[in-house]
Amino acid sequence: MNKKISIVDIANLLNISKTTVSFILNGRAQEKRISEELVKKVLKLVKEVGYKPNSLAKSLRTGKSNIIGLMVEDISNPFFANIARLIEDRAYEKGYRIIYCSTDNDTEKTLDLITMFRDRHVDGYIMAPPKNIEEDVQELIKSGLPVVMFDRYLPNVDTDYVIVDNQFSTYNATRHLIEQGYSKIAYITFTSEQTQMLDRMTGYKNALKEAKLKPYIKEIDFNRNEELIKEPLSVYLKKNPGIDAILFGTDHIGTCGLKVINQLGLKVPQDLAIVSFDDYDVFELYSPSVTAIAQPVEAIADNIISLLLKKLDANNSNQTTQKITLSTTLNIRNSSKQFLKPIS
C-alpha cells in the first residue's frame, strides 16, 4: 500500500467500527469490554501495515501533545547545548519530547517560532527570551500554557524563571582580580539590555566603586561573523595599553578576546590577567588555563524541567510563580594569578 494507512482503513479491513479501533489503540479495550481476540487481530494488522497515529489529531482529541518547546539564543553554544541535553533527558523520562530552536536573540524570529509551536500544540515553553516579546508571552500564559524562562527573564512578565546570581558573580570575579593586585580592570561584553547582562555590568561596577578604581568598559555589538567582534576588540586594546586585567562578560566574547590577545603578542597573565563568564573545557585546556565563572548547569536544567512538569501536572493548577536564583562558582586558574616579574 502506497498511501498512509488510517484508522478507517484498519476498521474497513477488519469490518469493525473505527471507534473500536480507536479504543484498542488508546488502551481502552478492557474498559469497553472488547474481546482479547479482536484486540489481537487489530494489533496484528496495525503492525503488518505499519500504521502510525497522527500525533496532531491525537493532541486535538486529548488536549496534550506531550511536546515541550525549548527556545534558546544559540543551540550550538556550549552552555545552551548542555542545558538542552539535560532537559531532554529529564523530559523524556516523564513521557515528553523536546523541540529545540535558536532565536539568535531576534525578536521577529522568536515570534515566528512561538507561532510554529502553537500550531504544533506544544504543552509548555522553556525559553531564554529576547527583548520585546512580552505581549506574546502574556498571551501564552493567559491561554493556560506554562512558560519557564532561564538565563534571563522579562521583568514585566510574571512567570517562573531560573537564573544565576549574575551581579554577585561579576562582583566576586572583579574582587578576585583586585585582590591579586590588578587595578586597571576592563569589562568587555556584548551590547545588551537583557537582565543577566545588566546585572553582570552592575556587579563589575560595584566592585570597582568599592575599591575606588576607575571602570574600563567596552561594549561590542554581537555578530555571527567573529571578525566583526575581534576587530573592535583589537582596536580597544591597542588604544588602552595600560589595562592590566580583563573580565569578559560571556564565554563567546572571551574566546574571541583570547584570539585577539594572541594576535597582538600579549602574554597572559604577564601582560593581561583574564577572567571570563561561563566555564567550559576550552578554558581549562587553554595555556595558561583561564579563570572562569561556572554556572551550575545541572542544577539549572533540573530546576527548569521540575518547574515546567509541575505546571503541566493537572493536579497542580493555580500554582504561584517561582523565581529561582542559583549561585555560581569562580574557578580560579593561572590566567588571573598575579605575575611577578623576575628581578634583573
Summarize the structure.
The protein has helices spanning 7-14, 18-25, 36-49, 55-62, 78-93, 107-119, 134-142, 166-179, 195-210, 227-239, 251-263, 281-285, 297-312, and strands at 67-72, 97-102, 124-127, 147-150, 160-164, 185-190, 216-220, 245-248, 273-277, 291-294, 323-326, 329-331. The protein is of the alpha/beta class. The chain folds into 3 domains: 7-53, lambda repressor-like DNA-binding domains (434 Repressor (Amino-terminal Domain)), CATH 1.10.260.40; 62-163 and 297-326, Response regulator (Rossmann fold, 3-Layer(aba) Sandwich), CATH 3.40.50.2300; 166-295 and 330-336, Rossmann fold (3-Layer(aba) Sandwich).
Into which percent range does the helicity of residues fall? Answer: 40-55%
Distance between the termini: 87 Å
| CATH architectural category of the largest domain | 3-Layer(aba) Sandwich
CATH topology heading of the largest domain: Rossmann fold
Write down the overall geometry.
elongated
CATH top level assignment of the largest domain: Alpha Beta
